[in-house]
Amino acid sequence: MTIVVETIAALRAQVRAWRAEGLKVALVPTMGALHDGHVSLMRAALERADRCVVSIFVNPRQFAPTEDLDKYPRQLALDLDRLEKAGVHLAFTPGVEEVYPQGFATSISVGGPSAELETDFRPAFFDGVATVVGKLFIQSEPDLAVFGEKDYQQLCVVKKLVQDLNLPLEIVGSPTIRDSEGLAMSSRNAYLSAQELEIARRLNKILRKAASALEGGADEAVTMAAARQDVLEAGFDAVDYVAARQSDTLAPWQRDTDGRVLVAARLGKTRLIDNVEISAS
Amino acid sequence: MTIVVETIAALRAQVRAWRAEGLKVALVPTMGALHDGHVSLMRAALERADRCVVSIFVNPRQFAPTEDLDKYPRQLALDLDRLEKAGVHLAFTPGVEEVYPQGFATSISVGGPSAELETDFRPAFFDGVATVVGKLFIQSEPDLAVFGEKDYQQLCVVKKLVQDLNLPLEIVGSPTIRDSEGLAMSSRNAYLSAQELEIARRLNKILRKAASALEGGADEAVTMAAARQDVLEAGFDAVDYVAARQSDTLAPWQRDTDGRVLVAARLGKTRLIDNVEISAS
Fold first, then answer.
1. Which positions in chain A touch B11 (Cβ < 8 Å)?
2. Rounded CA gap, B241 and B147, in Å?
3. Which chain B positions have a beta carbon within 8 Å of A103's beta carbon?
4. Secondary-structure class of domain A3-174 per CATH
5. Which biological pathway (chains A, B) (predicted)?
């Protein structure tokens, strides 16, 4: 039976009670609209901890005024059902006023890996993420938290946040879950028409081709330009970025280091992101 | 015997051991150069908690490039002797690299009470304070922390930081300690010549006169202008601000609410601040 709490006080009391019993507690922060990708994060959490807490909170501070805050999918009853089936012990479902009460005026900003990529197109995004995630960590006091590699830059920013603020927990990155065609699971896939879905499914193949080329010694600028062209030819309307970066710092990629190819592209009104590994060996 | 630790890991291990025994732990953050004002904070801590931790760290991030970071008084041996005599249980004396390792890139920013006053003259000051104090709270995990009312705007900013980030500790404000003439104890008083000391001692009397006038119904603008004039006539070289504000939010003061008169003034190369209560009754 998943316990559902809406207040920080109730969340903290339950987690502290578990930790006082010597139980290890994992947190999986989500914005709801749960899919198989999220369930894999819960599974990763339950492999490493005795208790799994999932937060469901659509964080207004990480949406720009022009973005999809209002139409972001919300389906709490369905989500709670998924948590129940996944064996999650506690769902934290605060209202906006619980997280950001009247007069709230504090923000956390992480430099380093937040530079460029998403920030070039969503300038306030990572401040919103760092602020809410920092608060969630302080509110819930978990031993570890699990984030998906799907939002790869976010994972790097969260690791840096934890390191820089000395937050006493471990961050676990969990591999992206994909459909049979390689499309990364995302709550925003729900926005896609049948035709757009076919186009979206080509994105990961293009990234894998680019990563293989780099691993094989191809020139970086040429490979990235070709990948951009491939994304547009697949049917996307615009490419925000496609770039090769070092794995942890997201500094410019250097041959013979582990890296990632990261992409953000627009398809109709939907913006999709994905990334794949560039192996150094 | 005061335990002295230089690493976050050793600090956290000791505080956790105490808390596991059911002992209540108080933190007093300082920049060293300890005087009777600091000792009064330790006393306030020891009245409320079983164990008192004092941090000594001159935080480079709260000094502007033009400010007195390099000449800020440092006297660790004397400070540790004071901690010993005050019955402090643990001194946390990290080096700069322990607090801000290579690549550190995160900052915490508190709005609300940080607006104007000090921020008008030291724009990055409260970001530096909020970042280091937030880190200290996360590093040391105390039940409570004591701050002096001498740095009144800082006290309000720290309370707001704790509230907004849901940090699980209580902030205690402790009254300003003054010499027989009313001069607020400050590490920066060490910069004053004998002649400047005489001038500095007039500052608190001027503030008390202004607060009394406001309590007696005098016009706010007239009273603040007179106070500014009084500070200059006492011999100060410049007045950064003298202002009446509400006690908690530092919003503009309103008659019949508790408030504070706050001042910052320059005397030679030294900048002094002080504040007094405006009682609503």
1. none
2. 22
3. 112
4. alpha beta
5. Cofactor biosynthesis; (R)-pantothenate biosynthesis; (R)-pantothenate from (R)-pantoate and beta-alanine: step 1/1
Taking an 8 Å cut-off on Cβ atoms, the answer to whether B109 and A110 are in contact is: no
Residue B118's pLDDT is 98
Q: Is the pLDDT of residue B172 over 90?
A: yes
pLDDT, tens digit, for every residue of B16-40?
999 999 999 999 999 999 999 999 9
Tell me if B185 is assigned to a ligand binding site.
yes
Residue that has been written with the tokens 């960590």 in this structure: A137
Fold exhibited by the domain B187-276? Pantoate--beta-alanine Ligase; Chain: A,domain 2 (3.30.1300)
DSSP label at residue A177? P
Fold of domain A187-275: Pantoate--beta-alanine Ligase; Chain: A,domain 2 (3.30.1300)
**B150 pLDDT tier (thresholds 50, 70, 90):** very high
Q: What is the pLDDT of residues A226-251, one digit of tens each?
A: 999 999 999 999 999 999 999 999 99
Q: Find the catalytic residue in A18, A27, A38, A59.
A: A38
The answer to whether the Cβ–Cβ distance between A8 and B166 falls below 8 Å is: yes
User: Strand (E) positions, chain B?
Assistant: 3-5, 25-30, 51-56, 90-92, 106-110, 144-148, 170-174, 238-246, 259-267, 270-278
Q: Do B138 and A138 touch (CB under 8 A)?
A: yes
Give contacts of A139 with chain B, Cβ < 8 Å.
166
- Report long-range pairs for A16-19 (Cβ below 8 Å, ≥24 apart): A16/A141, A18/A50, A18/A51, A19/A141, A19/A143
Look at A167 and B138 and tell me if their CB atoms are within 8 Å.
yes
Name the minimum distance, in Å, from the CA of B270 to any CA of chain A: 31
* Residue range(s) of every CATH 3.40.50.620 domain in chain A: 3-174
